[in-house]
Amino acid sequence: MNDREDAAAFFGKVTASTTHELQNVLAIIKENAGLMEDFIQMGPENLPDLLERVTRCLGKIKEQSYRGVDLTSGLNGFAHTTDMLLAPVNIYEIAKRLIFLTKRVFLQKGRQIVLIDCKNPPSFEADPVLFQKILWNCLECLVEIQDLTADIKVTLINSDAGKGIDLCFEDLALDNASFNQKLQGSAKWDSIQASCKAINLTASPIAQAPMGIRILLEKSFPA
Amino acid sequence: MKIQKIKILLIDDEEEFISTLAERLELRDYICKTAGDGVSGIQMIVNEPFDIAIVDLMMPGLNGLNTLRQIKEINPDLPVILLTGHGSTKDGMEGMRIGAFDFLIKPLDIYALIDKIKLALDTKAPQVKS
After folding, report:
1. pLDDT tens digits, one per residue of A170-212
2. Per-residue pLDDT at A138
3. What is the pLDDT of residues B18-29, one digit of tens each?
4. Mean pLDDT of chain A
5. Which residues of B touch A42 (CB under 8 A)?
6. Are B14 and A24 a contacting pair at CB < 8 A?
7. A interface mutation test: which of B13, B17, B105 has the most A CBs within 10 A?
8. What is the pLDDT of residues A101-158, one digit of tens each?
9. CA–CA distance, B109 with A37 (Å, rounded to integer)
10. Do B107 and A26 touch (CB under 8 A)?
11. For residue A212, which phi and psi values (nearest 5 degrees)?
12. What ipTM does the predicted assembly reach?
């Protein structure tokens, strides 16, 4: 798969996941509107007794509208990352949005991706699309190499030792040698390395617990 | 003669969706039970009889197609209607190949769902219980 096909597949998966969530939001809104319509058709004399149920329907519609707004805002922000080839990349914000939009994809595979809050997130200038694709490929790579349903914890690094992001399994289920072998044998690992090189990042395996992948900004890059 | 009501099992991880759909179907004299995932849905089918199952395709854990496969192993005669949030009909068609009666795309039209339920039960047994 060339870079363009790879990027198109990545955008396709994120968009499919988000629009599927939106279909669910709309389905809930439609059923609640339909239920209120059913109540009205039962006759005005019944409405006073149904007030509590009507209020509940309205509450659900309001709640789902907020969920829909979060999804469309996220998807819109994601789409706009294609606007510029070079832009400031706030690692935390980008990771947060990507994890939110693709939650269902990983839940379907029995995984939860947990982003740890960061008060002082690192940022740098790069192609945001490429950076998101690296994060996505890391998550997919980790899911593929670990058969067990271990959740993945995403932690930002912003210290004198370096700036970047760790994506690690919550529970360790492999020995170091098998982990390294599986990671470096994955086709996605080559793609991650190539993409990282293109925007001055380095990707390395974290072979001790908690195992995972570390993405670091290269030292030469301004903080 | 006592008329037996049709008993439907709804399986979908979107709790707000199935609870409201169940309420709407109950207003139309169906008996509905709900399950939030494929595994608990299958357990319910093992434990009690249903006339029809409505299963969402995209669920965490056991997905809709695998849920359908297991339902067909337990009770090959139980009609299953699949629900999909996908714009494409690929998974729905795959489900029909495995043994689903039909599939519908979310958001649903309740009247289309009821027509589909009636058709599925007519096809299964011409003497409709209603």
Report:
1. 876 667 788 888 888 888 899 999 999 989 899 999 877 788 9
2. 95
3. 999 999 999 999
4. 89
5. 27
6. yes
7. B17
8. 999 889 888 889 999 998 888 889 999 999 999 999 999 999 888 766 678 999 999 8
9. 13
10. yes
11. 170, -150
12. 0.89
How far apart CA A190 and CA A183 sit, in angstroms, is 10
Instruction: Report the pLDDT value the prediction gives residue A221, as an integer from 0 to 100.
Output: 44
> And the tokens for A17?
């996941």
Contact A151, A114 (CB under 8 A): yes
Domain coordinates of chain B in residue numbers? Answer: 7-124
**Are the beta carbons of B63 and A60 separated by less than 8 Å?**
no
Q: Which residue of A has its CA nearest to B24?
A: A35
Specify the fold of B7-124: Rossmann fold (3.40.50)
The structure tokens listed for B66 are: 């695998």
Strands B102-105 and B80-84, sheet pairing? parallel
Q: Which residue of A has its CA nearest to B12?
A: A24
Instruction: Look up residue A184 and give its amino acid.
Output: Q
Task: Give the separation between CA A118 and CA B108, rounded to whole angstroms.
Answer: 41
Rounded to the nearest angstrom, the minimum Cα separation between A102 and chain B is: 13
